[in-house]
Design brief:
The protein has 242 residues and is α/β, with parallel strands linked by helices. It has helices at 2-14, 32-49, 101-107, 157-165, 175-183, 220-231, and strands at residues 24-30, 53-59, 73-77, 86-93, 95-99, 121-124, 136-139, 142-145, 150-154, 170-174, 188-189, 201-203, 206-212.
Amino acid sequence: MMMARECLQRAQAAVTDLDATPEGRLRIACSTSFGRHKLAPLLPSLKARYPRLAIELLLADRAVDHAREDVDVSIRIEPQLEEGLVARPIAQVPFVFCAAPSYLARTGVPRTPEALREHRCLLFRHPKDGRHLRWGFVRDGLRFDAEVSPALVSDDIDALAAMALAGGGITRLAAFVAAPYLARGELQALFEGNEAGDAQALPEPMRLFLCVSDRRDLTPKVRALMTHIVEGLPAEWRVDVA
């Protein structure tokens, strides 16, 4: 009976005018780093734009069950995608490999991804499956993973940034995490342009997706969120969501 009622509600939502004013509760689950650094600052302006929305943000890098946790929509990185979700790409965020100048002064600057095997690497362990996220590069159109040995590991990106700031080694940060440290000179970016000595080996970007359980869950409030996120990102990161 409950399943039939839920299907009826979804069917009714599917025929709702897509231009209707977004309203009601909007519970968003989001990967921790993007949620903390980019999405949270965008939500006050979304609320101001649509005052009848009641917005709640859940930050988690674990698998989030939309139905069981009463989540309307989730923002996920590629390793978090699960079979059965409807996933819309919304952004490609550059990854920045970086380290403290003090560390690079001691060890030298790696000029190619292959040189990373000689360095202390600070890796992210994903809660979904317990594996280290691989450090992907693209060279001459071909993707490959750098060979690395973990010196320090964490399941929190900001913790990895703190380790790098303390001279612990090289880490990989999303551009929105790395930017303030690079601007202050506290971290130094690697593998950028011709200075890398291997200009064709570029870091693979971080792909972000907006996910719902069913296409009928792409309601006006969810579409409003998707548009608002994309509009709030740098133009070079955006993916067309029309």
